Task: inverse folding
């Protein structure tokens, strides 16, 4: 009954206010994905034209059915965060994200120039498949959290060395001068070498080095020397999206 009432509410809203709404059922005839347009953003999106920027972030614990909310937000001409659309997903997998991104394109009629997300692998591959021309940047806050989760256990008994490693990461991540592109490889090699020289050779370190190798390959999606050459309306993370999750959840 909860799903039925939800669908009826959004269908009524669509019919009365011309606000885009779609839902999808899974093979068990249960609600699987929902996409809902907020009131007013289509006009804002149209004004942005080819320079549109959006952020997309998902939040757990927002329903008793363990579904996740995902918010598309942007920045308006006065620098304020504006919600574009709301999604609700049963699973954070590639097919679900492809469906959500496809609904966004249908609703707003054009794709953003730039989108910021966290480092979710399924989201990354979904965007690569359905929005290949859109610049996909990784949220630096989430990237730091991932860096911490992967690297900190190796340095748990060496706090001084950990502080040195953290400074190396942030220097690479935040150096916005375009000349930093020329020194990126050397700086990242130095970071990896520091990990190798200050941690024991264990299976955990092997996994960490593999993760760092993947991070290096995606440098253009997170290092400021590349990100700051593109108009992002001042955004460098999914922070604006996360900031409004609490209000939407309530």
Result:
């Amino acid at each position: 009954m909860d799903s039925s009432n939800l669908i009826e509410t959004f269908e009524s809203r669509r019919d009365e206010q011309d606000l885009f709404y779609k839902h999808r059922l899974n093979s068990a005839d249960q609600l699987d994905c929902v996409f809902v347009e907020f009131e007013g953003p289509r006009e804002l999106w149209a004004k942005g034209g080819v320079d549109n920027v959006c952020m997309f972030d998902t939040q757990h614990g927002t329903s008793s059915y363990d579904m996740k909310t995902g918010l598309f937000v942007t920045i308006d001409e006065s620098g304020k965060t504006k919600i574009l659309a709301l999604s609700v997903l049963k699973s954070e997998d590639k097919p679900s994200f492809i469906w959500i991104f496809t609904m966004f394109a249908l609703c707003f009629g054009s794709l953003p120039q730039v989108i910021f997300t966290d480092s979710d692998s399924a989201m990354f591959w979904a965007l690569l498949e359905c929005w290949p021309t859109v610049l996909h940047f990784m949220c630096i806050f989430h990237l730091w959290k991932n860096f911490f989760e992967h690297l900190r256990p190796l340095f748990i008994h060496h706090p001084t060395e950990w502080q040195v490693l953290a400074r190396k990461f942030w220097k690479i991540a935040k150096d916005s001068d375009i000349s930093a592109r020329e020194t990126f490889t050397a700086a990242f090699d130095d970071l990896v070498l520091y990990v190798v020289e200050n941690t024991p050779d264990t299976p955990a370190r092997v996994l960490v080095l593999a993760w760092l190798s993947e991070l290096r390959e995606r440098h253009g999606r997170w290092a400021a020397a590349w990100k700051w050459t593109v108009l992002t309306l001042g955004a460098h993370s999914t922070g604006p999206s996360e900031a409004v999750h609490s209000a939407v959840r309530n």
Summary: The chain has two domains: 2-113+235-249, 141-227. The CA atoms of residues 43 and 53 lie 14 Å apart.
